[in-house]
């Protein structure tokens, strides 16, 4: 059943929240930034992390809602459920496919012990790379859904919302990095997304499989970014007393 943005659905609420976030961010970015918010209008590093986490949580929740919509709407449900059945029949194929997300080339920590070996600055740069790597896929996702026959308005609107949120999250992380390391130059390479041809394929199954994989990988990464940001905020506020057992995929 198609979720209507005119009704009080989670998708609609998340999109309204994202717009509220963007309006708030215009005010935040116009204020002076200092390590401690001692004067009215100043933004502390903790405040910047709080805002980035609010963005990451909204992005993650919207991505989850979009996946549910793909599995329930007649536009895509049949194909998405077929892929799950195919995976259940062939576990090796499932493992190979779902371990091929383009961001998996990044060397990311899986436990707190590994995370503690990474400097605050390098951890932020890693998160920046992870978020930046989704700029291109999300741009093409919106373009393809816009031209795709039968694509529901709610799915297209949700994709646009995620694209905007990802861009804003990237900007907030860059702002945090500039505060931690003023004058840091961006000279990094980012993971290359190679599924555009599949997303544009005339073959229906290839086309929908590209959508399925994109949203699977996006779900993993939005969750991961949220966990990483919460860990860094914990380190910032509580020092080394952050005891989460491990970073797990959803």
UniProtKB/TrEMBL annotation:
Its main location: secreted. InterPro entries: 4_helix_cytokine-like_core, Somatotropin/Prolactin, Somatotropin_CS. Pfam families: Hormone_1. One of its GO terms (molecular function) is prolactin receptor binding. Gene3D superfamilies: 1.20.1250.10. GO terms for cellular component: extracellular space. GO terms for biological process: female pregnancy; mammary gland development; positive regulation of cell population proliferation; positive regulation of lactation; positive regulation of receptor signaling pathway via JAK-STAT; response to nutrient levels. Zn(2+) binds at residue 226. This is Prolactin family 7, subfamily c, member 1. It comes from Peromyscus maniculatus bairdii.
